[in-house]
Amino acid sequence: MTDSADVPTSRPMDAWLDALSQPTGSPGGGAASGVMLGLAAALMGMVAGYTPDVRAVAESADRLVRVRTELLEAVEADGVVSASFGAALAMSPDDPAREERVRDAAVEAAQSVARLGRIGVTLVPEARTLASDGNPHVAVDLAVATEALHAGLSGASLNLRANLQLARRHGASTSMLTALQEEIGRVAEARTQVARITAELSARLD
Questions:
Q1: Do residues 120 and 32 lie in contact, with contact meaning Cβ atoms separated by under 8 Å?
Q2: Domain 11-203, CATH 3.90.1310.10 — does that match?
Q3: Average pLDDT per run of 10 along the chain, which is 206 residues long?
Q4: Which residue among 32, 34, 87, 162 is least enclosed by CB atoms within 10 Å?
Q5: 203-to-36, 50, 136, 164, 182 alpha-carbon distances in Å
Q6: Whole-model pTM?
Q7: Which one, of 7, 36, 1, lies nearest residue 20 by Cα?
């Protein structure tokens, strides 16, 4: 069986999804959240492409290409981090090094998924621009994109909270986690904004 940690998102989708389905956790929920964010960025790029004559949208399209690249890189990096995290958790409970290894791996995993969340947050103003100035004939595609964005942000938040909880259980200090804890609030605010955009787009479809 192929080691799922060796299956990057640049492989065919069926191979990546097969790797995701394996009981390895690498890739896992964090990487999946990043892929949802990537889907959102790609769909937004499509909407922007259908709006070639609006300067603000053209500028958004250029940024979306860069964001999509950043997301793919972050997703692949998260798969590697997840493999290390799994290895730490698999250590024998009697191993005196386990507590520190799990703590450090949990913090690293939290940092990785926080990176995905930060990138996802940058998609919110792009969604707002497209909702305002994008081609109205593809509003439904933008609505699907914002739904994917909301799902990706939610997944990143859930994974971040779980990783921070585990890090605390294994001895991480408050000072080690403060900055990461603040990321949860930023993602929550972004989700609220995305939900409003989605509601506005949905109302246009009735």
A1: no
A2: no
A3: 45 81 85 95 96 93 95 91 90 94 95 96 98 95 98 96 95 90 95 97 92
A4: 87
A5: 23, 21, 12, 37, 33
A6: 0.90
A7: 7
